[in-house]
Amino acid sequence: MGGKLGLDPRVVRKARRLAARAGQPVVxxxxxxxxxxxxxxxxxxxxxxxxxxxxxxxxxxxxDAVCADVGLGHGVAVPVFHAMRTTGVEDVTVLAQKAAAGSxxxxxPEKKADVAAARRLAKRAxxxxxxxxxxxxxxxxxxxxxxxxxxxRPWIYxxxxxxxxxxxxxxxxxxxxxxxxxxxxxxxxxxxxxDYVPEGATRxxxxxxxxxxxxxxxxxxxxxxxxxxxxRYVRLTNYASGLCxxxxxxxxxxxxxxxxxxxxxxxxxxxxxxxxxxxxxxxxSRQVHARAGIIINTGEDNYLTTADAVEAAHTVTVSQxxxxxxxxEAGLADWQLGLGHAFxxxxxxxxxxxxxxxxxxxxxxxFPDAPLKWMPPTKHMTGDVFRGNLLDGxxxxxxxxxxxxxxxxxxxxxxxxTPWLSDRDIALQNVRYVLNGAxxxxxxxxxxxxxxxxxxxxxxxxxxxxxxxxxxxxxxLTAIADGTFGIMKRPADRGKGLDGVARLExxxxxxxxxxxxx
Amino acid sequence: MTIVRxxxxxxxDGMVQLSFTLPVPHDKRAEGAAxxxxxxxxxxxxxxxxxxxxxxxxxxxxxxxxxxxxxDTDQVQVVERDYPLLSAKExxxxxxxxxxxRLNVVGACIGTDAHTVGIDAxxxxxxxxxxxxxxxxxxxxxxNMGAQVSVPDLVETARERKxxxxxxxxxxxxxxxxxxxxxxMSAAFREAMPAGKRPLLIVGGPRFDELMTAxxxxxxxxxxxxxxxxxxxxxxxxxxxSPA
Lengths: 518, 244
Known about the structure:
The complex is a heterodimer.
Chain A: H1 9-31, E1 33-35, H2 36-45, H3 58-70, H4 77-87, H5 92-100, H6 112-147, E2 155-160, H7 165-177, E3 182-185, H8 213-230, E4 235-239, H9 245-254, E5 259-261, H10 266-271, H11 275-292, E6 295-297, H12 303-306, H13 313-329, E7 337-338, E8 340-342, H14 352-366, E9 373-375, H15 385-401, E10 406-408, H16 421-438, H17 452-474, H18 476-481, E11 501-503, H19 511-517
Parallel strand pairs in A: 2-3, 2-10, 3-4, 4-5, 5-6, 6-7, 8-9, 9-10
Antiparallel strand pairs in A: 1-11
Helix pairs in contact in A: 1-11, 1-13, 1-17, 2-3, 2-6, 2-9, 3-5, 4-6, 7-8, 9-11, 13-17, 14-15, 14-17, 15-16
Chain B: E1 3-4, E2 15-22, H1 28-40, E3 43-54, E4 58-67, E5 71-72, H2 88-99, E6 103-109, H3 117-123, E7 140-144, H4 151-160, E8 165-169, H5 177-192, E9 200-204, H6 213-216, E10 220-222, H7 228-240
Parallel strand pairs in B: 6-7, 6-8, 8-9, 9-10
Antiparallel strand pairs in B: 1-5, 2-4, 3-4
Helix pairs in contact in B: 2-7, 4-5
């Protein structure tokens, strides 16, 4: 018996063991497949830049050309760098342009010496990309040392979402000055299903701004300016999710983003992306995040927006355990695991706040070294902004009481409008009041043995173990197909992006995976 | 008595509260500007009860005051429910008796909108607020296409499934996306199918004006707080006639 909830360490160990057994087949699946987006990420790290006149990135044109000639299963690294040797082209972006024009043919060389030479070139080129990622990580560590981390936990996480990067920047800077420690730029709602990453600075998006390398660079530079002014390193968040998650992970590493939304199942459940595509892309993107020193934010909070937050509480725990397993397998450390959970219980339910505390504390106790991401109410925000502000206050209090790591600031106008300037100010005032008045209350908050909160936490953990046992028996892919998470049914042979998945050939070579697994 | 005024704590006092932001730093002049706005909005007298600067150049105000306007409830125009609200049992029975086959319903979030909460609340078995969704009705055959469905895909699926009704949910309203998407959707159905063969077109979302059906080219608009039973009752009313 240990911690504030008296959880039985044997049950906790069992839960982790089951999560590993449930997750391992998916890891094996990921290791035996590649996707167009993984290969495009390799090319981005190898230095392919820019897009054609229609805005289609050269990485897409190049991967498509390689696929047309030799398929995807060998990986693109060897065919592309073999072609560099045979054509004498020295710039890989130029090669992509020539390939798009149809003037380059791709082949997998037969001679061992040719293969070795192509691998060597590919490794050198992608190594240069990884060196930039390493430099960015060192730069972050240096800047945090210079300007400092936020003085308090949880870190205050705020969203901007105008659709226009040049509007986002002043809003993000204003939010940081008003107290935000982490700025997330919400993406345009269409982006997760785009099978390419748009290029350049963008000024039009729906309910968010496109994730592009240039937008990343602009926002990071602006926040560096503000961090310097405030004497506090302000972190930047975006989304490594959707069909291009590996590429976006690579771009985040290249442009020193600090946190990325990156859930093992979100795309499957909520964007109907093919499960295999997602798990392959997931593993690669997490390996990149591990290398880049990026904190991932998982998306368990979303299950509770579709399923009932009390009935489905244990599915959140199960998903956290799976996300933890997949993250560790990909090389992420505990400090990089912003496991998600949310305050989504119907406030009309008797004891709803005590139930929230039980769930939040369970996550805290199960993952003591992870910076848990605590998400505000959305489902029961009704448009009654006064009630909404009160609910957000209780959400903030639950966050303080249970020692959450990252607190996404709730808006009383959730479900009404995209946040106004004044909504954000009122929301931050709410957070400041709670953290100022009760920020260290977690020191005193120890639920009574045998009491409601402890019992509820034990019950949820018990249900999580039962569900994990079932998942181990049925396999995770079947569980997903049956609607276990977020009540969305997603069979493994359906969903978007399946045509961009290939089984690895014996000759498959990926210099980036090789380096990241070394 | 059809003339009313807002109510603070006394009948006829006309008291309202208002909050807004002006893009000016907080000083005496800013407070005067806030009162000027309130006066122009018909608040007389207006009391400035709270003013707070946000960032460099903005101030948030809360104003209480009496408005001079009168409201005539006889002049109000709304879409009243013009069909009977039936129970799930009655709905199934009417379809069985009048249509003699299951009604086909296709639902989707179209355009870039990824918010399936609305369509799921209406369609999923789980439903909303304790009321089960359309999937739970024995006599309805429901296809939920989910989020970010393109209009051509929707038309194609509607054709394939011989849809009697198409339900479209739109939550995102930035730059009037909900209106643009809905118009594109209804135009596509008009183009693809002759008048008699077209499914019933229904849109729903928290920010639609229920009076805009003609303008948007749809048969019915459902607003905030609509329940699955209301939608099912409307389907029965429109497609099978009311129960005799």
